């Protein structure tokens, strides 16, 4: 009986994964608890092609320990031939009443945050994406070293609807 339940769960999870036809790359990494600003999540992505446009996302899971309504991230993309693009991004994480945005039925919320729309991997080879937090409290110059409430950081590449 137990083996049939495990087998059923395996086929169900395979079905869910295979239904994601737009996903080209989707990976998560757990971050330290609390997430230290020096703890950089690194993702290595092979360029799918050099012609088509893709949408890029930062995925993030947070729990009830996250006490801010926004999130600042530094996302750095290193191209295969040495070019580097570094962005400081701000994302809204909660409604004005404090309710977290994102999806999920438990205390963990999953957020799919836009990074780049219509991005073309112009160089063949491996791209490296580095993600770290850059949080500060209002009125303070020095940043937050340890950010509580973030459990996992991910990176996702999707085909655009035009592909």
TrEMBL record:
Keyword Zinc-finger (UniProt): no
Source species, domain of life: Bacteria
Pfam families: GldH_lipo
Keywords assigned by UniProt, alphabetized: Lipoprotein, Signal
Signal peptide (from-to): 1-21
PROSITE patterns: PROKAR_LIPOPROTEIN
Protein name per Swiss-Prot or TrEMBL: Gliding motility lipoprotein GldH
């Amino acid at each position: 009986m137990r083996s049939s339940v495990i087998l059923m769960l395996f086929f169900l999870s395979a079905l869910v994964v295979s239904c994601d036809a737009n996903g080209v790359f989707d990976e998560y990494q757990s971050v330290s608890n609390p997430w230290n600003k020096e703890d950089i999540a690194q993702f290595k992505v092979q360029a799918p092609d050099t012609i088509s446009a893709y949408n890029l996302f930062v995925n993030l899971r947070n729990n009830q320990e996250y006490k801010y309504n926004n999130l600042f991230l530094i996302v750095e993309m290193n191209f295969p031939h040495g070019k580097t693009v570094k962005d400081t991004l701000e994302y809204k994480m909660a409604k004005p009443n404090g309710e977290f945005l994102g999806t999920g039925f438990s205390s963990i919320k999953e957020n799919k945050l836009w990074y780049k729309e219509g991005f073309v991997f112009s160089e063949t080879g491996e791209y490296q994406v580095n993600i770290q937090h850059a949080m500060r409290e209002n009125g303070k110059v020095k940043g937050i070293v340890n950010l509580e409430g973030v459990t996992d950081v991910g990176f996702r590449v999707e085909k655009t609807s035009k592909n």
